[in-house]
Structures are given as structure tokens and as C-alpha cells.
Amino acid sequence: MILLPLIALFGCQPQENKYEDAANRIEEALQQKYGEEFVVEKIGGGFGTVNTNTIKSMASPKSDPSIKFQVEITKDLEKVYDKYLNEIVAQSNVKPIEEMARKFWSDAKVTITNDTVWTYPTHVDRDMTYEEFLKLYPSNTQLVSVFVNSENYMNEMNEMDEDSELLRYQQFAKVLVESGNLKTRFNVKYLSLDAYSRYDELRRRSAEMTYEYKKEEDERSLMNFVVINGTYISENGKLEDSEVDFKETFEYWKRKRLEYLEKKGTM
Description:
Blueprint: H1 13-34, E1 38-43, E2 54-61, E3 69-74, E4 80-82, H2 84-101, E5 109-115, H3 130-136, E6 141-149, H4 162-178, E7 184-191, H5 193-197, H6 199-205, H7 209-220, E8 225-233, H8 243-252, H9 254-265
């Protein structure tokens, strides 16, 4: 078991023992609840918790370490709250939503997570659909990231056919609504050719692909994102953004597209 404090390592032995006891209790509780083994990867720190009486941690199932989810445990080690069901429902929805996305972007690769904000699910039904999950947890927003190769959606001058992309967004949103995917925020993330070619390699390490690509940009000065655009589908099936909003976002990313063009010219 790897225990990495979220804020810092504490020199006080009793504090370390407390975190170890909490991690052991979390792993035990999760196994009892879901019938599989888990590993607590990070633990410690009170920021972002429901209240000051809990310890925050991150865990993953041994069956798929790339999936990370939030867990909190009360300081008396009695109660454990987790968001594993968020990820179970999200993972079961990846394939059908990816199939929908590929009707509009043939090279689409999709990741999904569910954000129930401060609500920790109590159900354990692995076969729960997203529609059922949303009824039980109406605070949830489904976060869909569609990763595509930017080279397939720009001409040799890195200009995009914005009207065509807008139509794709609208059509994709329509099929999402028709399939019950309300309260969904989706973003299409147009990757550089190099970033897209490494997608499968990165995905084997982590399901949090946006985080992984952003981390690479920050730490290695790579250019992974060339354009990002998308919208939010409300509980009534309406789009949050207008065509003007979409085009303003494309304009915002214009500098990055030109920068990418310049880099390609030196390769």
C-alpha cells in the first residue's frame, strides 16, 4: 500500500499512524461495500472535505489502477464516503458515447467522469445506467471529453471550418439528449498529432487524460491542446452556449493554432 499525503509528509509518528489506520479502514470498507480490492494511493489534509471531521483520500480499484476516485473517512474511522459509483457509471457509458461521437468525429476517443459535487453515492449497483444515476443523484454533472486529432479538422494553414464543427456539436448534443444524457458537459479537445498518437499509452496509466496532457504541457512544455470547445446540456436538454459563444471560443484558440502551425514548420 502506497501512502502519499496530499499536502506534505508529516514528521510526527502518531499522525502517520493515524493516516495508515485510516487507509487500512478505507480499503476494508470499500472491499466490503463493492466486493473487490482497493488501494488508497493518497491520504491526508482537510481541504475540500465535507467538514473538518473527515480525512480526504484518493483510491483506485486493484483491477484498474488508472481509475481514481475520492474517499472521505471520519476521524473516528467509523464512516467512509466514496465516489466509486461515479466512476462505475462513467466507465459503463464510455463505449456508447464514444460510438455516438464517432458518427461526427471518426477518430474520437472518449473519457467520462461524474461530478456529484458534495454528494457521496450510497448505492452499489454496477449495472446502473446514467439516467438512473442522475435520478438518484440530481446534483450530478456528467463530464465528457472527446479527444480528436486536430490534423483531421484543419487545413494546411491550421484554419478550421467552424460552421462544420458547430454543426457537429449540435448533432452530437442531439443524440446525447435522445439517449438520456442530460446534465452533461462535453468538450471536444483537438490534440496535436503527437499528443493524439500517444493517447493509448497515456490512457493505460490514467483515466484522467485531460489532467495528464495538461501536466505534460506544464512540465515538459509540450503542445498537446490545439483547440478546446464544447458546451453544457441542461436537465431540459438545452445547450448553454450559442453559436456566437462557440465562435468566440474558436477565436480565443486562434493564437494556439497559429503557434502549432509555426512549430510544424520547423519539424
